[in-house]
Design goal:
It is built from ten helices and eight strands. With 362 residues, it is mainly alpha-helical. α3 crosses α9.
Length: 362
């Protein structure tokens, strides 16, 4: 056990040092006039939190010129513009320094968004927002790659477990012994009590998939180097899709009692004109709360950790670094709990909403 604690402590310290080096390398890309100005952590934090068309690995600094060269994994860019399909690697943008031409079409990467360049060139309005049209972007971005990697990881973990059970190996060992109590906990303490003994088995595969998908991606998001570092569960499109699945399961399996309570609420009929919209809003607000809760908690954790590291460069003194590192280590440990807790809360509330929908009136 002591060795495990030592390993976790060394890992957290390494992650903190790595995150600090990331900010140092980003800060070194500015010229002297920029370094004299106050350090603004917002662009750096948003760069780490938002999606990207490449997977940044590390930076190499030229000792002679002092210029920083980012090293990243290029990802496929898939665009549809004016009826044409264009596919190429994101490395052709050279981190946004050059545009990419495809026949009579030209694209530019600006703040990790792709815009089409027309005859008037690349235009910015008074607020420095591009006015150029956006093509349909179906690119394999960093978050999409992380989604595929996590799906592969889930299959690699649970398919061998299923084969062992199929062969009759009921005594768990190794990773199977670690995950089996979690599976039983979701089955016996989440699904069965909230959905009911007669209905929970139909929804158990979804609840298990949602729990482990969220938990694995939350944990991978805490690792700042490949294959981690992607803020997948902090992407509102991902949390919206998960919440939408819960809404679909709840709506499609709702009993007559459930929908009767929505469209014929047990109040005087002259109040139906008020209560029916309220009940419909309640149906939609439940998955909306799931979406916002997961998105906000995971994103906030990343922002807080990066903000604490940024304190060193905001105050421009090495004396703030011990306090900053201690706070970051504390937040990293807390984020481990949040990663598991948010997966548990999403699964528990999904089971609760489904259970309320499938219950018959007694």
């Amino acid at each position: 056990m002591k060795k495990l604690y030592l390993f976790i402590s060394v890992l957290f310290f390494s992650l903190t040092v790595y995150s600090t080096e990331e900010i140092v390398s980003n800060e070194e890309t500015h010229d002297k006039s920029d370094n004299e100005a106050a350090f603004d952590p917002t662009p750096m934090i948003m760069h780490h939190v938002n999606d990207s068309h490449n997977w940044h690995l590390f930076d190499l600094t030229d000792k002679e010129s002092g210029k920083v060269h980012p090293v990243s994994i290029p990802l496929p860019v898939i665009l549809i513009y004016n009826g044409h399909l264009d596919i190429f690697l994101s490395s052709k943008f050279h981190h946004g320094e050059t545009s990419v031409k495809k026949e009579d079409r030209e694209y530019v990467l600006y703040h990790d968004k792709i815009y089409a360049i027309e005859e008037t060139g690349f235009q910015l309005n008074e607020e420095h927002h591009p006015t150029n049209p956006k093509p349909w972007d179906f690119s394999i971005t960093k978050n999409v790659t992380a989604l595929l990697l996590s799906a592969f990881l889930l299959l690699a973990v649970f398919i061998p477990m299923a084969r062992k059970y199929k062969k009759g190996t009921l005594v768990p060992s190794g990773l199977q012994g670690f995950l089996e109590p979690i599976v039983l906990f979701i089955k016996e303490d989440i699904a069965e009590p909230n959905i009911g003994k007669h209905n929970y088995q139909k929804f158990l595969p979804y609840l298990l998939t949602a729990f482990f998908f969220i938990w694995f991606n939350n944990m991978l998001g805490l690792i700042p180097f490949f294959p981690g570092g992607a803020n997948l569960t902090g992407n509102i499109a991902v949390t919206m899709t998960l919440a939408f699945f819960t809404l679909i399961l709840t709506s499609m399996n709702g009993s007559k009692t459930y929908w009767g309570h929505v469209f014929t609420p047990p109040v005087p009929k002259w109040l139906w004109i008020i209560m029916i919209p309220v009940e419909l809003i309640g149906v939609l607000s439940k998955p909306f709360a799931l979406m916002i809760r997961l998105f906000a908690n995971i994103t906030a954790g990343h922002i807080i950790v990066l903000s604490l590291v940024s304190l060193i460069f905001i105050f421009k003194t090495v004396w703030i670094s011990p306090a900053s590192i201690i706070l970051v280590l504390f937040m990293d440990v807390l984020e481990l709990l949040v990663a598991l807790l948010q997966a548990y809360i999403f699964t528990l509330l999904s089971a609760l909403f489904i259970g309320l929908a499938v219950q018959e009136h007694h």
